[in-house]
Structures are given as C-alpha cells and as structure tokens.
Amino acid sequence: MNFDVITSYIPLYTEAFFLTIRIGWTGIGLALFIGVFVAFAQHFRVPVLARIAGIYVELFRNTPLLCQLFFLYFGLPKIGITIPAETCGTLGLGLLGGSYMAEVFRSGLGSIPVTQEEGALALGLTRRQMFTYVVFPEALSLSVPGIVGNMIFLLKETSVFSAISLMDLMFTAKDLIGLYYNTTEALFLLVIFYIIMLLPVSVLGSILENKVKIRTYGA
Amino acid sequence: MDVDMRPILEVKNISKRYDDITVFENLNLQVKKGEVLVIVGPSGCGKSTLLRCLNALEPIQEGEIILDGEAIRPGSREVNKLREKVGMVFQSYDLFPHMTVLQNVMLAPIKVKKRDKKEVREEALALLDRVGLLSKKDQFPRQLSGGQKQRVAIVRALMMHPEVLLLDEITAALDPEMVQEVLEVVLSLAKEGRTMLIVTHEMQFARAVADRMIFIDGGHIVEEGTPEEFFEHPKTERLSSFLAKMRF
After folding, report:
1. Contact with chain A for residue B149, Cβ under 8 A
2. Looking at the domain B3-247, which fold is it?
3. For A162-182, how does the pLDDT look when each residue is reduced to its tens digit (9 = 90+)?
4. Does position A72 have pLDDT exceeding 90, yes or no?
C-alpha cells in the first residue's frame, strides 16, 4: 500500500464524505418526518389518508433505492419535471426511509398496551393528552432501536448515488480506481470513510437505546 | 333529608352487554359519602366490569350513573368530569414506565386540573411519604416491587382528589408478602372517611374494611349486608357456598 497515494486521495474523499453526510442526514430527516406522518395516519385510521399511507409504504419498501432514483432522475424529466441530482438523492432516500420509519413508529404505537391508555383515561386525561404524554413518548422510546437501525441502513444506501452522477464516497472510489488503478488504496480509504461515518451513529445509538429503554409493562 | 345521607354515587338500572352476552341487567346501587362498599363474587360475574362502567371505561347500554346529583351520559364531555371525580386503581398498576414516581403522580393534577406545579409537588411528596415511598420519588416504576408500584398507583389516583375511589382487585397480582402493605394503605384511607368501591378476593381484608358487602353472581346482586351478616349469616345458598370455597 502506497501511503503517498493515500495522502493525496484524502482531500477528494473528504469532499465526497461531506456530500454523502449532507445528503444522507437530510434524507434521514425527511424520512423521520414522513415516517411519523404516515404512522399517525395509519394508527388513527384517518379516512383516505390511511389507505394512501399503506400504499406508499408497500410501494417504497418493496422497490430498491436504485429504481426509485432512476425514476426520479431519468423518469420524471420525460414528463417535464427535472430535479437536480442532489435533490433526487435526498428525496429518494427520504421516500425510501419514510416507508421504513413509518413501520417502526407504527409498530411502536401498536405495542403500547391498552391498559396504559386506560390508566391515563381513568385519571381524567383527554384522549389527546393521553397520546401526548403517555402513548407517544412510550412508543418513541420503543422505536429507538428501529430508528437507529434505519439510520445506519439509509446512510449505507447512499452508496448507490453514483448511479445518478452524485460524487459520493462510492463514486469517488470507483472514479479513482478507473483513473489510476490504485485499487488497494482507493478501497482502503472507502472502508475507512464509511466507518468514520457510521460508527458514531451506532455507538451513540446504543447509548440512546439504553437511556430510553422501557423494560417491562404493567410496570 | 340529611345532606350527608344523600348518595354520592347512584347507579340506576344499568345494563351492560357485549353483542349477545349480557354481563348485567338493570343493576341498581347506591353509595353514600364516606361509605366503603366491597363487592365480591365468582370470577366472570361482572364485578370488574361494573367498576369499569363506573369510570366510563366501558360504555353502558341502558341506565344512568349519577355522581353527586349529576347524571353522566356515556360518550359525552361529562365523561371526563366523571373520571376526574372517580379515581380508579387497577390490578396491573398501569404506572407510566417512562416517568419517575413523582412524574407519574403529578401528571394528571397538572395537565387535567391545571394546578400549580409547586403546590402539586408538595402534595405529592406528602402523600408519598404517607405511604412510605418518599425515598423512591425519583425512581422509575421498573425499579419498584409490585407492592410499591401499587402504593404509587393509589397515590396517583388520590392526587386528583376523587370523590369516589374504585379499587379493582388491587392485590391480585401481588406476591403474598406485599399484599399487607397495600391493604394497610387502603385501611387507613377507609378510616379517614374515603368513599370507596372495592372489588377483592381478600375476604379478611373485606371484612375489616367494609361498611357494606355486596355479592354479585350471574350479573345480579344476590346478597347485600353488613360484613357481620354477610360472613356470619349468609341468607342465600349461593353466597354460603361461595364463602365456603374462599375459606378452604
């Protein structure tokens, strides 16, 4: 392994790293927003919206991100809608992630025992207060492991962005290999940068999980 | 009419049905202020359902519930008023696991009654102290024993200053050595004149705490009386055979 090559590549990887992080976290933010909205629509069985939410989840959970990106980047221009590559990446990640996050929130909300609701109602809380102070916070803490898992998954999914010409980490590695054939160095840096990106998420995630863990019910 | 003799809670001809199953029909009940009414009966007789109806957790199909002279129509906004005035403690405690003991007992007075936080806190601390749990105020429910959790649940209900307290088999899920600590709290509440409706299988406790006993079987009030009459001279065959089984 040639360390001069590695040193000379680092600035390129750093640039790609920040692009990946920017799109990745914006996409995750969007995914969380969509996820909560969709899960609420399903949990409260909002007429029409709940049906649409269900279709959305199945559609995006069961198609690969690459297809969704192709659709946004190459498909939409055919009907006159052109979106910049970076927006496509964010949007694609947000839509895919939204379907995964929605399922996590929905199962969190669904696993709060009815006795918790009754305990709250019996104290005179309104249904809205019951949801705000009891059901939602509990569902949220049950959802943390799933949310963290999805975050890691979504950050890794950014590796297909090169297909729509976004200069993310994977794009940079492939590009450098194609130009200079320094395969070992390029791939070594690729792994290192992905670890730098993801390790903090999983470590902080586990700490958060332990902090908000609810061990038993009826309890 | 003596004001104090007026019933605080009146149940008139209520019926509860699930589709084709009738839990009870045309049930009547009156509870005076300060009275402790203990309801016993075989499992499935509808005694827990009755308590749940009195807190509007179950809708009733017919009849009326009158609290302090006001009729409560199921499904109306009055239901929340009813729940503010009628406290309930459950077999499964149902403390909120993401909140500390203190947060658990302070939630409802602050959010429902919009009371001053400081004042609520002082009252909460005093009540926790009374049930011997002041040192646990910052712990989470999972760190408490069953008996401790149930005492917190009682404090949580008391914090709303209910006119009537409903206790639904509150010792049924507890280990035997923890039953006593919870029952002692209930006994002390009875002594200070709390109005309570208690469903229990602890017959000795029932006898000690009750002003009046009710035996429900098959959706009907089969027998009613003072604890002495009830335990020493049961009038019906059904009650005496029920009591015989409880004594073993």
Report:
1. yes
2. Rossmann fold (3.40.50)
3. 999 899 999 999 999 999 999
4. yes
State which amino acid sits at residue A151. Answer: M
Domain boundaries, chain B: 3-247
Across the interface, of B83, B95, B142, the residue whose CB is closest to A215 is B142
| Number of inter-chain CB pairs under 8 A, A vs B | 73
Residues 6+ apart with CB under 8 A from B110: B117, B120
B167: chain A residues, CB-CB within 8 Å: none
CB-count exposure of residue A100 (10 Å: 0-12, 13-18, 19+): buried
Tokens of B155: 């404090």
Q: Which amino acid is at A27?
A: G
- Please give the Cα distance from A57 to A39 (Å, whole number): 10
ipTM: 0.89
Most B CBs within 10 Å: which of A114, A121, A123, as the mutation test of the B interface? A123
- B129 membership: H or E segment, kind and range: helix B117-130
**Confidence (pLDDT) at B4:** 59
Domains, chain A = 3-212 (1.10.3720.10)
Contact between B103 and B180 under an 8 Å Cβ cutoff? The reply is: no
List pLDDT tens digits, range B184-207.
999 999 999 999 999 998 898 999
| Interface contact B112-A215, CB threshold 8 A | no
Interchain contact, A115 vs B141, CB within 8 Å: no
Instruction: Find, among B196, B239, B244, the residue nearest to B216 by Cα.
Output: B239
What is the spatial distance between Cα B23 and Cα B29, in angstroms, rounded to a whole number?
16
Tally of CB atoms within 10 A around B66: 15
Residue whose tokens read 């390790």:
A199
Q: What is the pLDDT of residue A185?
A: 93
Q: Is the dihedral of CA B9, B13, B18, B21 positive or negative?
A: positive
Q: What is the pLDDT of residues A106-154, one digit of tens each?
A: 999 999 999 999 999 999 999 999 999 999 999 999 999 999 999 999 9
C-alpha–C-alpha distance, residues A91 and A28, integer Å: 10
> Residue B199 and residue A116: Cα distance in Å, rounded?
20
pLDDT confidence band for B61 (50 / 70 / 90): confident
Three-state DSSP class for B7?
A: strand
Nearest C-alpha neighbor of B186 from the set B150, B161, B149: B150
